[in-house]
UniProtKB/TrEMBL annotation:
InterPro entries referenced in this protein's UniProt entry, alphabetically: ICDH/IPMDH, IsoPropMal-DH-like_dom
Gene3D superfamilies on file: Isopropylmalate Dehydrogenase (3.40.718.10)
One of the Pfam families matching this protein, by short name: Iso_dh
Reported cofactor(s): Mn(2+); Mg(2+)
The keyword Amino-acid biosynthesis belongs to this UniProt entry's keyword annotation: no
Organism: Thermogymnomonas acidicola
Domain named Isopropylmalate dehydrogenase-like: residues: 1-323
Name of the protein: 3-isopropylmalate dehydrogenase
GO molecular function: metal ion binding; oxidoreductase activity
Length: 331
């Protein structure tokens, strides 16, 4: 639907669809081909649906496709805004997107492995452990140069209230580096900001979400806090995200997963993907169209043109039809 919308609204744009899916993996054993990654790399922008299927062991598609794309396309920041259609208020989770516990380095008693090879790993980390019974580990890594460019991307939020979160009290090495780079870059760029531990942010968000405007979070907490943020507003059905780096293509996707339980029933909420397409347009030279889409989504919300998850009674296809009528009228 989001592609249909963009093809109708834009001239001279070519779309290429990639058949990357759990179904294909189940049939052929292929998660994502090297050539596919190379083709994707040449595009101006990528719209990503969602991945995950209960018939496939957790992690295979997620790590093999979306985490792999984030890392290989070097999309080091993930912008996850949620907006109230009632008050217009926006809360953004600005998530570090490729490092920390997502580097894909870990193992068990039999040794260390880098199944994805997302990061080059030179040298060895030598620790002799004495653990009874089974054990397993995943290593969290953050690098200074990476954090410096990540925090530098916050410059788009000048004037907003910034909260930088972590668990520097429990995991001090990584998050001390995180804090020192945050302080250096944000002070340089003239920001006012505060640090707050992630557990405490979760508590305050649940009780008093107005306290926050931009929450800057490491990868894993950013994942969790962005779902929480969506839940505090209109739900995951309205939560888009932009995976961005210093180069094209950026990758735009809904925050939600593939919802396999409702696949094919024509009741999935189309708005998170439509809003992700809107972010794609905003980041790729079509701010006017992007704003028109956001406004029409808000209008659909207010006129209850909604699927059941959002309290409506309409099917996805009907919602989309009504939405497109509004959008055609608006541009
Ligand atoms: C997200 C998802 C992914 C993540 C999963 C599918 C690996 O939850 O984009 O929020 O953890 O980043
Ligand atoms: Mn998530």
């Amino acid at each position: 639907m989001a592609v249909e919308m963009m093809s109708e609204m834009l001239e001279n744009v070519d779309f290429q669809e990639f058949g990357i899916s759990s179904q294909r993996y189940l049939e052929s054993g292929t998660v994502m081909k090297e050539e596919e990654v190379e083709e994707i790399r040449k595009k101006d922008a990528v719209l990503f649906g969602a991945i995950g299927d209960p018939r496939v062991r957790p992690g295979i598609m997620e790590r093999g496709v979306i985490l792999n794309l984030r890392a290989t396309l070097d999309l080091f920041a993930n912008v996850r805004p949620v907006r109230s259609f009632v008050t217009g208020r926006e809360l953004v989770v600005f998530r570090e997107n490729t490092q920390e516990f997502y580097v894909g380095i870990g193992g068990d008693r039999s040794g260390i492995e880098r199944p994805l090879g997302l990061y080059g790993c030179e040298g060895t980390i030598g620790v002799r452990l004495s653990v009874r019974g089974n054990m397993a580990f995943d290593i969290g890594i953050m690098s200074e140069a990476h954090l410096r460019r990540f925090f530098s991307r916050l410059s788009i939020y000048r004037g907003r209230k910034i909260t930088v979160t972590d668990k520097a009290n429990a995991v001090p090495n990584m998050y001390s580096l995180w804090r020192s780079v945050a302080a250096e870059v944000l002070q340089r760029d003239g920001f006012e900001f505060t640090f707050q531990y992630a557990d405490s942010v979760a508590y305050d968000m649940a009780r008093n979400p107005e306290k926050y405007e931009v929450i800057v979070a490491p990868n894993l907490y950013g994942d969790i806090l962005s779902d929480l943020a969506a839940g505090l507003f209109h739900g995951l059905g309205f939560a888009p995200s932009a995976n961005i780096g210093d180069r094209r293509p950026g990758l735009f996707e809904p925050v939600h997963g593939s919802a396999p339980d409702i696949a094919g029933k024509d009741i999935a909420n189309p708005f998170a993907t439509i809003l992700a397409a809107s972010m794609l347009l905003e980041y790729n030279g079509h701010p006017g169209l992007s704003k028109a889409i956001n406004d029409c989504v808000a209008e659909c919300y207010r006129s209850r043109i909604l699927t059941p998850d959002a309290g409506g009674k309409m099917r996805s296809s009907e919602v989309f039809r009504e939405f497109m009528k509004k959008l055609r009228g608006a541009v």
